[in-house]
Each structure stands twice: as C-alpha cells, then as structure tokens.
Amino acid sequence: MSISPLLRHNHFAAATILILVSASWSFAQKKADPAGKIDLRVGDRVTLLGGTLIERMQLHNYLEALLTSGFADRELTFRNLGWSGDNVFGHARAVFGAPNDGFKRLEKDVDQTKPTTFVLHYGSNEAHQGEAHLQTFIAGYQRLLDTLAKRSPRMIIILPRPYETKSPPLPDPKDYNEKLQLYRDAIQELAMQRGIPTIDLAQVLANATDNGVHPTPAGHLLFAQSLAGQIGLRAQPWQASIDAKSGAQESAGVALTQINAKPTQVTMTLQSDLLMNNEGGPANTLRVTSLKPGKYALVVDGKEQLVASASQWANGVKLNLSQDTQQFETLRREIHDKNELFFHRHRPQNETYLFLFRKHEQGNNAVEIPQFDPLIATKEAEIAKLKRPHSHRLEIRRQ
C-alpha cells in the first residue's frame, strides 16, 4: 500500500492561512464535558483514531503542534492512526482481507503506539446510513471503546461536525445533518455513560471547508485551535512593560531578564512562556515608558523589526516576533516529517509483498520496516528542542 497522495505534499503557507483566521488565536474557552475531565499527563502517548479528518491532520499538523508547544512541560508524544473512510468497525483497514479483518488490524496498530490516551473521531461516515443503522453503530462504538480500554481507559471523543451548506452544485446537507444529529446525541449519551469527555467541532464557524465536508488548510487551523482550547490550552498574547529610567518591569506570559535601561536605549533578553505563531492574529504588547522624545527602532537578534516614537512606546507597541513564528513553523514541519515516517512504519508501501499474500516474493524486505523506529526517534528529539520558545535579545535604540 502506498502512502496517501495527500501526504506527499507539504503545505506550509502559514502566513496566508493565519491571516485568514486572525480572530481565532485567542482560543474560546469551554469547560470540559461533564462526562469526564480531560487530563493530559506528563509523558502521555496520545493515539488519534478515526477516518479522513484524523488522517488528514497529518497534512497540516496544527493540533499536534499546538498541544506539543502549549503543554511543552508534559513531554507529550502523538501517533496518528487515522484511515480515510474508516468506521468504528475498522472496515477501511481490512486492505485485501474481509471487512471484519480491519478491526484486527486496528488493534495491531494501536498496540504498536503503546497509548496512554486516545482521541477518537467517528460517526461522520456512519451517519449516512441514518436511524436504521444507529443501534448497530453504537454497539460498534461500545466494542471499540471496550477494546481500547484494555490498553488505556483515558479517552477523548470528538463529536462529528455537521456538513456546511455550500452553493450549488454541491448538495443541500439538510437531510444528512438531521441524521447526524441522531448520531451526535447517541455519542454524547454513550460518552456520559462511560465518563468520557467530549469536544465538539460544531463550535467552529462556517466556511471551514471548500466542499462542505473536508476542511481547507485554514479550516484545519480553525479546527485545531478549537480542539486545543477545549482540551485546555490557554493561548494568549504576552504583555510586558519597562520603565527606561528605573528599569522596573512587569510582564505576563513572558520573561524579561538582563535588562539594561537608559532613557535613550533599553536592552533585554526576552523569552515567551508559550511558543505561538501569532502572525495575522492578536499581537503581543511591549510598553516602554520614560524614553526621551524621538524615534526608536526595535532590533531583535540583530535585525531591525519596527520603528515607533517615544509616545507610541509609552502607550504600548503591538508586535509579533517573526523569530517565534519561524520556530513554530519549523516545529510543525518536523512534526509533519515524523508523522510521515510513522505512516510508512504502520502502513508501509508494498504491504502486499511484505506481509500479505505475496510475501513469498519479497517478504524478506519486511525486516526494513522496524528501521523507521530510530528515524522517528530522531525526529522526536528535534521536536523536543523546538517546542519551547527560544530567548531573543531585544534592543530599543534611539535613531
């Protein structure tokens, strides 16, 4: 089996995407579902299971990047086992076997990830079968949850999102959405019974997709920000204030050290608490009071970033550090590469020849598949280096 064509392409037009969704960076907060508390712990291995939406998260990797950087102290790792077209029975995973073989494959792949927490997204495909199939679906979901609970009882369920209404010739999703609501209600009831917290993509506003179903790159970012906020990530721009005469400082969300303050020049080392890509979104604020009148340039790591007057500095200058944006995008790219390596690890190309009915021809090459493990470990080490913000040397100097 070859890797999904979607995963062969990197799409990192981050600046354009983030400008489109600028209002969404301050995550809307929602209490965890009363069914259970979302609790990501130190060292958690998070396994994502579901169909097309989960699989395509590997294209953009926003959710993993946000949670990796947002909870950097928890040393989280992620494994994506999404499979396009999948359902709670694992039918899409059967490859050349009988449909029921797909569930065995699902179990095998899950065991490979050594999970401590599951994130599940099912129901979108099954809802097309309507009310007549609902009880079969719930029974299948029960079996899936029972099976996963033997590995770890800690789970998060993502509720399936209604289809968006788009212009013709795309069909009106009204009938489907009515069916889906039955499934959403049943999933919520199931989650309540089992004490599993749910998070809801329906909170994301319209226009997250291009066909009513699958999110665009900007839609993937919207989804990730919504999910991360519901999981508990608190992402807010930082604020800092320095008095150029006394050197006194106040800050929230950022640490200022090595401050040298004069009325015509202020230097400092700055390190954000949280790595964020804020380009196009709500800006951080740096306020410098008691500067002598004049124009002052902000130089970050030796590069001039902006110029503002003393009065503007006193009122607070809005800024987003391009260095942090670049670091976040590098983190996201490393996560993409790690996920692609893991994709090849658990869904290798030429699987038929390696493990299935033609393995008598090339099965000897199956020994190469575990060789992806050290490559994945190397990428994990790079991710660990990137998930915390680097410090930057700032200078505000009179022109």
Rg from C-alpha positions?
A: 24 Å
CATH topology of the largest domain: Rossmann fold
- Second-tier CATH architecture of the largest domain: 3-Layer(aba) Sandwich
The total beta strand count reads 14
| CATH homologous superfamily descriptor of the largest domain | SGNH hydrolase
Total domain count: 2
Structural class: alpha/beta
Mean pLDDT: 88
Main beta sheet strand tally, sense and closure: 5 strands, parallel
Under the CATH scheme, which class of the largest domain?
Alpha Beta
Report the total helices. Answer: 12
Give the distance, in angstroms, between the N- and C-terminal Cα atoms. Answer: 62 Å
Brief description of this entry?
With 399 residues, the chain is of the alpha/beta class. The protein contains 12 helices and 14 strands.
Characterization of the model:
- The chain has 399 residues and is of the alpha/beta class.
- The protein has two domains: 27-235, 3-Layer(aba) Sandwich (Rossmann fold), CATH 3.40.50; 237-399, no CATH class.
- 36% of the residues lie in helices and 20% in strands.
- The protein contains twelve helices and 14 strands.
- It has a five-stranded parallel sheet with strand order 2-1-3-4-5, with helices on both faces. Strands 8-9-14-11-12 form a five-stranded antiparallel sheet.
- Helix 3 (62-70) packs parallel to helix 7 (217-231), helix 3 crosses helix 9 and helix 9 runs antiparallel to helix 12.
- The protein starts with 13 loop residues before the first helix and ends with a strand.
